[in-house]
Structure formats: C-alpha cells, structure tokens
Amino acid sequence: MIELKDIKKIYFIGIGGIGMSAIARYFHALGVPVSGYDRTRTALTRALEDTGIAIHYEDDVNQAPKDVSLVVYTPAVPREHGELNFYRENNYPVLKRSDVLKIITENAYNICVAGTHGKTTMSTMIAHLLRDSGYGCNAFLGGISANYDTNFWSSSRNLCVVEADEFDRSFLKLSPDVAIITAMDPDHLDIYGSDQDFKEAFTAFSSRVKEGGLLLYKYGLDLEKSATRERYSYSLTNTNADIHAQNVQVVNGGYEFDVVIKLKAGKTINGCRLEMGGLHNVENAVAAIAVAQYVGINEDAIRKGIASFKGVKRRFEYHVKSESQVYIDDYAHHPEELKALLGGVKNLFCDMRSTILFQPHLYSRTRDFAEGFAESLQMADEVILLPVYAAREKPIPQITSEWLAEKMAMPVRVIEKEKVLDWLREDFLKREDQVGRVLITAGAGDIDNLVEPIKNILSGNSDNSVPV
Hints:
- By secondary structure, the protein is α/β, with parallel strands linked by helices.
- The protein has 15 helices and 21 strands.
- The strands form three sheets. Strands 8-7-9-6-10-11-12-13-14-15 form a ten-stranded mixed sheet, sandwiched between helices.
- Helix 1 links the parallel strand 1 and strand 2.
- Helix 5 crosses helix 8, helix 5 packs across helix 9 and helix 10 packs parallel to helix 12.
- The radius of gyration is 22 Å and the shape is globular.
C-alpha cells in the first residue's frame, strides 16, 4: 500500500467532486503538486483553479500528466474513461478516493459521520465547533461550509473530521475513534441490491470503531449487532435517548434549546441557539454538541460555536428572506430529506404558501423510491418537477418526471430546466398572493445552476425581498 510520504505528485480524475476536491485541497496544502480532470467547469473547479491547481475538461490522454506518483479517481467516472484506462494499462498506481482517504486517516484520531441524511451538516457542525473553539481539526467535508467557504481545512492537531460516504461502500475503509450514524434509510440500491444489505453495511461501519471508541446513533436505528461497546443514542426531543434537546423554542427565526447529555457522569448544556432552519438541524446540533463535549470543548465555547454556525451551502440555505418572500435552496434528493426540508419550511413559515422546484436525481433512485417522493413532495402547496438528472446512469424506460407526477394526488407541472426562469417571471411573480410565499429549489443534480439567477430575479422584483 502506498504511504503518504511516497506521494510526490498527484492527479485526480473527477477532481470537481465534493469529496475529491477536499482531498485535492489537502495535498495542495501539503505542497504536493496537484492537477486534475473533470467533465465540466463548476464553482468547485474554479475555486481549485484559483489556488493554482491545473484542471482540464476533456478526456484527453495527451493532456494527462505522465510523471505522477499517484492517480486518484471517483467511482462516478465511467469505466470506458480514456485517461483512467491509460493509467491502468501503463501500471501507474491508481486508487479510489476512499482508499486515499484511508491512507490519510490511518494514523489520526478520526471523527467519522455516516448516514443517508444529515451527515454533511453534522460533520460540518462538529468541524466548526472544533475550529471555532481553537481546539483544531482537519476537515474533509461533503459540502461547502458557509462559515469558511470551503470543504476542507487543516490543523496541526492530528484529528480528522470525515464525512463517511456509504456510496460504493467507501465508509468501510475508515477506522473511527468516534462514529456517528444519522440515518439508515435505504439508498444506492444500484450498489447494494437490497435494503438488508444496505443496513448491514452500516452495522459493519459501526463495528469499525476502534477499541475504546464511541458510537453515537440516532435513537431507533437497528444497530444491535454492532460490536462497539460504548454506544449512545441521540434524538431531537425523545427523552428515552441518551442525548436529546429540551425546551426547544422558535425565537426570532432561529431555535433556542438545552441539550441533555447522558455520557459518563451526565451533563446538561443550557442556552444553545441555532440560526439554521429545520428541526432536523436542531437534532444534528444535539449530536454535534455531544461530540464536542466528549472531546473536551467547554460549554461556553460550544454555545458560541453553535450560535455562530452559518450552515452548509445547499443545506436549507436562505437566498432571499423577508416577511412576504423566502427563497431556500437545498441538496435534498431522497424522500426522507425532502420530508425534513418541507417539514422545516412548514414549521418556520406556517402562514406562507410553499412552492418546490425539484429535480429528481438518478433514474434508479426515482424508480426505487417513487412512492416516497410522491408522499414527501405533496407536503408543499405546489410542486414543479424538472426532468430526471441522469448523472452516471443511462435512462430507464418509462421512468420520467411525468411518470412520477402521475403518482401525486395534486396537479404537478413538469418543465424543462431552461424554462424555469420564464416560469418564474411569467407565472410565479405575477400571482397576487394573499399570503407570503416560500420558493424552494431541491436536488443533487445541476439545479444549483439556477440558484443565482432565481435569487437575482426575486430580489429585483420586490423591494421587500432581501438577499441573504
């Protein structure tokens, strides 16, 4: 196995992926020459280029460097990729992203956050608490921290906060000192095959906690087969959980609450405040606060850190917010994530009418969870669907957004992504609503390319709409 000291020059195939870009930033910070390929130029690749990392956007062996000591690729890259096959055929060291993360974290104290939902927000919360308090950590995140505008940062402290990705069973290569499992709702069935195999992978992950380590899991998850001895459950407000919130109140658009932590001697941290929307994010904060307390962060620093946490880009992210108009963008691409998102909107803006623009992600996921998508989306007052975003897949016959729309007991429109701004100007903004309105964009595809144009149109059409 390659060791860190052997990596003198590194090349990334799929460098613009959120997990890949974090590792690229890590090596760049070490002073290792980094370059890469990606299919399209995005905000992430532009940010990497701004740091001096060379990136090209054509699958072209002639542009691929020949003097690298390691090639890293993401499983999302197709098997027929020319550059990837060139490196393999010529016996270059070629590793998946997860294998490189394993190498990086092998000799570190690791806090690893896994789960179908919530892992990005929770891992970013934990990393922020450690950084903001001065404790320090290396952070490998699956989203862009709004506090620091990055998905990676480093520290002299040999502690890593890692988002543990279940896709392609990547998280089974990690060795946590602290593991957190937020949810085990089945996903990626194109990889796992069945709900049971998916859940067994999470049990296997939980059993990878090092001797003397800690497992935190959401109350109600079936982890009875886990080999980890020291394990505690957390919940939003369920008092049967070892860690939970109490006295939760909505105050001035944020949440105020206390956290009961029954670890070791037990403790209650009073007077916490979170500015993020959604009660599911209060639940994320409950676990993050428990981890911070477990590693030794004091109460005042925890309260200060949670209050200053600005969230993660594309996680219940406000772009316009006023008394009459709110615009939120979110990465939600699973029925349970949509349920949490729309539940949060209803909780905070119960007197406003909600419209969601949702872009389904993957034909297989749309097919496998169609009933769940239909149920969750109908929590909104109005649903607009974009065509399915294929990502790594080829179309599946008859699995379309129109097919999904037919499963809902309400009128649903399907419009092309290119027509969304026309719909916004010619329909949405011309309505004479008697109540305020919340507009939500959601999905894991390229719907985020619409965020800035939508924000600009909404901000320019109402004197009361305040860009965030």
